[in-house]
Each structure stands twice: as structure tokens, then as C-alpha cells.
Amino acid sequence: MYCRHYHGRVRGGTTPRRLGSSALVVLAASALFAAPLSLAPPPAASAATLTAVSGSLGSYNIDTNKVFVSGISSGGFEAVQLDVAYSSEFHGAAIFAGGPYYCAQDSIATAEDDCTTAVEPISDATLESDTNSWASQGLIDSTSNLKNEPIYLFSGTNDNTVKQSVMNDLDSYYAHYGADITYNSTTDAGHGWISPEGPNSCSVTQSPYINNCGIDPEQTFLTSFLGSLQAQNTGSPEGQLIEFNQNSYAPGGSANSVGMSNNGYAYVPSSCANGASCSLMLSLTGCAMTTSDIGTAFASDSGLNEWADTNNMVVLYPEVESAYNSSNPNACWDWWGYLGNDANYAQKAGAQMTTLMAMVHAMEGGTSSSPAAPSVTTDAATGITSSAATLNGSVDPNGTATSYDFEYGTSTSYGSTTSSVSAGSGTAATTVSADLTGLAPDTTYDYQLVATSSAGTTDGGNLTFTTPAASACYTASNYQLTVDGYAYETDGYTYADGSNDYLGLWNTYETSSVEETSPGYFVAVSSCP
What we know:
This protein is α/β, with parallel strands linked by helices. It has helices spanning 22-31, 74-85, 108-113, 124-137, 164-176, 217-226, 270-273, 291-294, 297-301, 305-311, 351-363, 478-483, and strands at 4-7, 53-54, 62-72, 93-96, 150-154, 180-184, 193-194, 200-201, 210-212, 240-245, 263-268, 278-284, 313-317, 375-382, 389-396, 402-409, 416-417, 421-424, 430-436, 444-453, 456-459, 463-466, 473-477, 487-490, 493-496, 502-505, 511-518, 521-525. A ten-stranded mixed sheet has the order 1-6-5-4-3-12-13-11-10-2, with helices on both faces. Strands 16, 17, 18, 20, 21 and 22 form a six-stranded antiparallel sheet that branches. Strands 7-9-8 form a three-stranded parallel sheet.
């Protein structure tokens, strides 16, 4: 049974609509979460209270049972993606103005119309079905991890960017899986992260999207995550804001290739730097909240650092960037598939997802290097007939969620592909196969096994097989089949030569089909091609 703690009233399916051209996609993405053109230009961001020092992302004494994620707007959607896909690793989530998992369904139009401004209702049943299917395939972690997980939700009554009905759907989504939900839906807040350190008044929606509403949500959700808190630090910061290079955590060593900035930030209290057992909070900005837009305002004014100082918590503030992807002009996190070549963006294999998790794992003491691409071997085909064959091979995911398929055709250009199947995220080679039908007889086919993860795509090398010539097949009356030497008659009944398959009465009225599978050996078939 799930539990909920409400700060007010809550709660109150569609087919995704894709845009017709890339130009429209870019136009729509540029408008996503942007202020209406009629608004006056937003004020400049407040001066940051923290100065970042250059450094590297260290390895700390992180309690892996105290790893949490939070986010605002696009960062809220991304935080939900992380929390659901990696539910075995995150143990609490705080979402400001986000929405349900996989809400956009790969469509920028659905993202804008249904998942933000609520033009049409969201079908939680569809999203839950997708979640369950992916979990059963190992593409995301088991949904059982969400049961009793502490979840904090915030939706301002004055937020017209992500409508409250969308957050209500997120509430319903988490409730479906039995999460322990705290939901503030009654504060007159605009679209933004809510913090006592915020420079904006509560009800506005403007840069730097950090609003002061006279409440402390960070204290509320950190209490549900960590239990009783020590009083926050009200003096000078005791830790350091470290600016680190994000490239080594991204596939291929390039953060830009996955729409992320070269640098990110981490706030490290002195106690954690000196080896104390600490929790870890991954916190994600919304669109137009990068360092280029607001400086280090979010890393300074999120309201997390003051609690981190006195409660042994490291805070990770990664950075996304607009300059490296034309479909993401407002520097949003990828929750609708804007990278284009990343169909797994909402799954564990998603490019931004694995990059963020590489940072988390590095801080937990794991490796900081980029994940390895899958190891793949193409093996000999089996079960070859004139029209069918079974393709074989092996895949080692090398620890990253991986999918595979076989490419095949009458040349090394292939042209045909089997359905994509999950190979999981293990660290050992697994035998895989796919059945082909409808092949041409007496034909040589090229084929190769291909596996893909966020770390890259690997093929197992090309092999060939040749289908035999099609066997002869004959359809005629049972009488004619015996005359032609394909069957014989005994006591008024007809049987196929070789196999002795029963064909029926021996006469000119009853018709049968037989196939010659080897010289002089005939079997009964339902019909001839």
C-alpha cells in the first residue's frame, strides 16, 4: 500500500503526434518552456554566492543506500527518467514541475502539448504499460524498487509552463507503483525551483527560475530521504563548489556529442572531502538554466548546499548545453528524444542517462572512464532450408544496457534487419539467435550480428550461408499422383511414396499435395507454393 502526505488537494491517453519536418521540431524545441514573447526581458541572474574552483570529480565515501535525484522542469522529467530506469540505485526523488516517465513518447509535439500545457490528457495506463514492458526486458530496473520510495512533488498554482494536471499525472504514476508521496500543490508559485535562497518572488516565471516562496522544500524532502536533519549551515559555506570536466563520463569521451557541456559542478562539504560517510544528491536544472544563462546561480541558490554542509551530503550539478544540438536551443535535458540517434534516451542505455550514472558511480568509488561498447561475435547459421534459416551469435554488454539485431541480405549492404532485442546489461557473453523466413531458394545471404549500447555499436563480422534449391512440390488428384509415381494405392487408399503419409481415397475427385524432400521421398503438405 502506498502512502501520501499532501500539502493540499491533488488530482484532478493519447497517441503521440510527430511533427512533419525537422524545421518544425527545431521551432517547437526553441519554444519549449520559453517565456511568451510579450513578456519583458528577464532580469539578469543574481550574483552567485559561491565561486567555483577547478578540479576533478572525486571518489567519496558514499552510502549507496542514500543516493537521490532531483530536478526542475526538463530536469524534473530527466530526474523521473533516472529514478525509474535506475530504481535500484536511487532511493528518493524530488520533482519540481516535471511529469510522468516516458511522457513525451518520442514526440516533441506530445512533449509540448500534453506533457507541459496539457492540451490533451496523458494516459497513465499507456505509460505504465511501457514501463512494465521495458522492466520485463531488463531495459530499466524492476518497478518493485519504487514501492515505498520517498517521492517529493511540487507544482505551483501559478505555473502555466508545466500545468498542474501534468504533475497530478506524475503523482498517479508513482502511486501506481506504491511510492511514498509528499505533494505540495497549493503554493502560489510560478514555474521554477523553490528555495529559501531563490532571488525571485514566489509567483513569477522568469530567469533564473529559482523562487523564494517562504517555505523550505529542501528541508521537507531531505527529511523524508535522510530522516531527522541537523540544523542547516546559516554562515559561510563549509564546502567547495568544484567545476569538473564532464567529457570522460560520456560515450566516446565527448559530452558535447550527447548535448552536454564540457564542464559540470559538484558541491562537496569538507566532511565528505575528509572521508565521512555521505549521501549523494544528483540535481538537474531546467531549460535555460545553464551557466551560460544564469551563471552558477542554481548550484549556489538551490537551498541544498546549506543542508549538505551539516548533514554530510555531496550535491552533483551536471550541465547540459544548447550549442551542441540544433534541436535543443533552450538547453533542456533529453526527455523527448532530441538527440535523434538515441532511441533509448529514457532507458538505462540512454546516452545522457549513462553519462550521468557514470558520474554517480565515479563519486561512489567506481570507475570514471567511459563505458565499453558491447563485444559481439557472429556465429554460423543453422537450420538452413530453401526458405528459412536461424542466425546465431553472442553478445557481451560489458555492463551497459544493450540491444541487438541481425542485418542480412544478398550482399554486404544487407538491407534487412531482424527485430531489436535486449541483451541486458551483464558482463558475460550471451548466446543469441534470430529465425529468418521467406528466404529465396538457391541464394547466398550475407549476415552479421550488431549490438548497440550508449557506449557504441559493434558488429560481429560478416558471415554467409546459402539456401538449397527449392524441393519439388506437386498437386493433383490422388489417382494422378499414383500414376506419376509420387504416391501408391493400397486397398483403395492413397499414401505418399517414401513417407507413407496418408492422402485419402484413391480416386480422381480427391486432390492432395506432396513435396519431394529428397530423391524419391515425398511428404504430404497442405499446399504447394
